[in-house]
Amino acid sequence: MKKMLKLFGVSVACMALLMLFACGQAPEEKKAEAPAKTEEAAAPAKEEPKTVTAGFVYVSPIGDAGYSYAHDLGRQAVDALDWAETFYAESVPEGADSERVIRNMARKGYDIIFTTSFGYMDPTIKVAKEFPDTKFMHCSGFKKAANVSNYFGRIYQARFLTGLVAGEMTKSNKLGYVAAFPIPEVIRGINAFTLGVRKVNPEAEVRVVWTKTWYDPALEKDAAKSLLDAGCDVITQHQDSPAAQEAAQEAGVYSVGYNSDMASFAPKSHLTSAMWNWGPMYVKVMEQVRDGSWQGDQSTWWSLKDGVVDIAPFGPMVPEDVKADVEAERAKFMAGEDVVFAGPVKNQAGEVVIPEGSTPADGDLLGMDWFVEGVVGTVK
Amino acid sequence: MLKIRKRDEPWKWGALVVFLGALLFSLLVGGLILAGHGKDALHALDLLWQGSFGNAWALEGALLKAIPLFLCSLGVAVAFRMQIWNIGAEGQFALGAIGATWMALTFPDLPRYVLLPLMFIMAFVFGGVWAFIPALLKLKLRVNEIISTLMLNYIAILLLDFLVFDAWKDPASFGFPMTPEFTPGAVIPSIGNSGIHWGLFFCVVVGFGLWGFMRFTRLGFELKASGEGARVAKYAKIRYGMLVLFVMTLSGGFAGWAGCIETSAVLGRLQGSLMVGYGYTAIVVAWLARLEPLNIAFASFLLAALRVGVENMQLELQIPAAFGSILEGMILLTVLAGQFFLTYTLERRQGGE
Q1: Between B59, B166, B208, which is nearest A22 by CB?
Q2: How many CB atoms lie within 10 A of CB A174?
Q3: Residues A255, A123 share a domain
Q4: What is the CATH number of the domain that holds A184?
Q5: In a shared domain, residues A93 and A143
Q6: Min Cα–Cα distance to chain A from B2, Å
């Protein structure tokens, strides 16, 4: 027991020391940091004025063929520029851990930090306050600050186009959607897909199953199977794995991919995919940082026209006339028209939510929490 | 020739030697893996050091991460000491966060010195009740607590989901699943100008308190005695059932406090990203530390430092995040395997034998 007392005494002493160290160190550290910062600021002006550094924070591993993979392709496009250097951290949990990773990046003096998942929003804002000279871009959220802008892409345009294909290809008129979380981003995708489906096939319905996961291939596959059992003959998904496509191929029905071109995972079933293509946007933002025109407090939603979203090449089973129809709609987006949520749009109860002749503002799209007519499922 | 012999007396400083040896071995193997991938292993280890201990900011990050681990581990260890297998720290952590959030959202305008204690009390009650349920089931219906505590984790997380997706969802969050931000009175402040919050101080107090309780009170003694088994306890006329209920409530309450601190000091609101598995890691930490409070403080700090340090290495060298898990797994495995040498020793076989 005496030994334990002694040990505990030592432990408390250590804790106290550490605390003292932490408290005592903090102001010192700040002092130490200040000159370091001016040095950093001065250094690029002297020798290499063109080098712009960027940090990327990803929520999942970059090898997942999904969301982070798509962002990382964008990062590689930036890295290929001879005046830009990039760093990334993958599998960073949202919440407390991300705050530390973002702060570490800011401390390393990167010019701009891209935080690519919704859950990084509060941490990004928090760290941005501590590092007013660092630029931040947060993906898919709604908060902004003097040195924080947010960005996202109108993936719903690509979803709408894939819906057109799926609506033409279904025979049972039942389509399955393996959905991640009931948040606006996902709901928007489901609605856009359904509107596409029902534009060409007003009889069809889209059945939704929530997995409450971003990356859990086994669970997502099971969810896809439950939709197949319910008679769905086209399956799509909003998670970061191609498990739903694989389930569709095993059952001998069609599938629509998301995030990247998922043809290689289910070549016999893959009709097309709604794809992210972050390269052009990241390169553009980096150019803005380089020439000083980058601005905080902005919201950027790039669209199909800007090349940030698109659909993957069609599978061999898609007939020519369907391809032509989809290409015609795609041409409208390319011309700058955005017809996806143009009124009249009804909700599940059949009430008109978006009246004829109007299109919802971006704020309404950002907070979309209701399903359009034709979706079978709840937003909870 | 070597032969294995059981030690006659415990190996003084043995635990430390084994631990350091295991750490060195794991770092060596980790370095070899990195070298095999064409990275500079020495530079990598330096980055690991810089990111975990070598800087004030690194220490700060490690300490912050150690706080929830320490409290959860302490709770788990108390129950384990009595051979009650509480695997439910994760759920009790979630319930604690829920209890604290309930107070923060119900009385947003109370001053800090009233609101924070309220949150801590409610976190303890919620976490404690969540652990009390399986204890009661164990005593009355002989339900195995390993199963029931584990299952309650899932219920707790679903409850948390329901609250952030539905009942407590911030109307101003554009439909995103999270509660409104806490008012300043509900946020645990930082210690001075540092990045460390007062939760660290709370950990020290709780650690001390638990040690004193186990050392000086009759209840604490009975608790340790019961750890020898229910029959021993009954023979010694110790109220075993009462103790089980008590120890589980305490265990859950500690995890609940961890949830409260994490929600209040770090996130500033309740949201799903709160749950990153501290409750499960706590079990590993508790065993690694052989259930001793002092060791738990060290083990949770070291594990936190390792995780923080690996991030730095990943960022600078662009190695996969999985490398961190590999290194961590290797260290845990070698430390546990090294425990062999605490009870046994290798000695040279004598020629005459």
Answers
A1: B59
A2: 18
A3: no
A4: 3.40.50.2300
A5: yes
A6: 33
User: CA nearest A240: which of A274, A262, A220, A214?
Assistant: A214
CB contact under 8 Å between A21 and B56, yes or no, is yes
| Domain end position, chosen among A119, A152, A185 | A152
State whether A21 and B59 contact (CB < 8 Å): yes
Residue contact B298–A11, C-beta within 8 A: yes
Number of structural domains, chain A? 2
Identify whether A31 is part of a domain: no
Whether residues B57 and A89 touch (CB distance < 8 A) is answered with no
Per-residue model confidence (pLDDT) at position A254: 96
Categorize the per-residue pLDDT at A12 as very low, low, confident or very high, splitting at 50, 70 and 90. Answer: very low
Amino acid at B216: F
* Confidence at residue A8, expressed as pLDDT on a 0 to 100 scale: 46
Domain span at residue A69 reads 50-152
A119 and B315: CB-CB below 8 Å? Answer: no
Give the list of residues 6+ apart from residue B271 with CB closer than 8 angstroms, or none. A95, A119, B164, B177, B178, B179
Write down the residue that tokens 């601190």 correspond to.
Answer: B261
**Helix, strand, coil proportions of chain A in percent (round to 5)?**
45, 20, 35
Q: Do B322 and A61 touch (CB under 8 A)?
A: yes
User: Which of the following CATH numbers is that of domain B66-309: 3.10.20, 1.10.3470, 1.10.357, 1.10.150?
Assistant: 1.10.3470
Task: State how far the Cα of B304 lies from the Cα of A97, in Å rounded to an integer.
Answer: 11
Q: SS3 of B286, please? A: helix
Q: Which of A16, A104, A182 lies nearest to residue B315, judging by beta carbons?
A: A104
Instruction: Identify whether A366 is part of a domain.
Output: yes
Mean pLDDT computed over A136-153: 93
Angle, vertex CA A258, rays to CA A255 and CA A262, nearest 5? 65
Q: Is residue A85 a part of any domain in this protein?
A: yes
Determine, for residues A1 and B215 on separate chains, whether the beta-carbon distance falls below 8 Å: yes
Residues A68 and A108 placed together within one structural domain of the fold: yes
Contact by Cβ (8 Å): A250, A262: no
Other beta carbons within 10 angstroms of residue A364's beta carbon come to 14
Smallest CA–CA distance, residue A7 to chain B, in Å, is 7
Whether residues A80 and A190 share a domain: the answer is no
Inspect the interface and report whether the beta carbons of A183 and B60 lie closer than 8 Å: no
Of A110, A128, A152, the residue at which a domain comes to its end is A152
Tell me if ipTM is over 0.95.
no
Q: How far is A187 from chain B (nearest CA, A)?
A: 10
CA proximity to A347, closest of A319, A303, A379, A311: A379
Instruction: Tell me which of A122, A131, A150 to substitute to probe the interface with B (most B C-beta atoms closer than 10 Å).
Output: A122
- Per the CB < 8 A criterion, the answer to whether A154 and A338 are in contact is yes
The predicted model scores a pTM of 0.85
Write the burial class of residue A193 (CB in 10 Å: 0-12 exposed, 13-18 middle, 19+ buried). Answer: buried
Residue B349: per-residue pLDDT: 72
Number of A/B CB contacts below 8 angstroms equals 151
Same domain, A143 and A191: no
**Interface contact A105-B315, CB threshold 8 A:** yes
Per-residue pLDDT of A58-113, as tens digits, reads 998 888 778 999 999 999 999 999 999 999 999 998 888 999 999 999 999 999 99
State whether A165 and A130 are in the same domain. no
Contacts of A107 in chain B (CB under 8 A): 57
Tell me how close the Cα of A88 comes to any Cα of chain B, in angstroms.
6
Q: Do A99 and B266 touch (CB under 8 A)?
A: yes
Cβ–Cβ < 8 Å for A366, B174: yes
Alpha-carbon gap: B68 to the closest alpha carbon of chain A (Å): 11
Give tens-digit pLDDT for B47-91: 999 988 888 889 999 999 999 999 999 999 999 999 899 999 999
Identify whether A94 is part of a domain: yes
Pair A103, A163 in one domain = no
Distance from CA of B351 to the nearest CA of A (A): 39
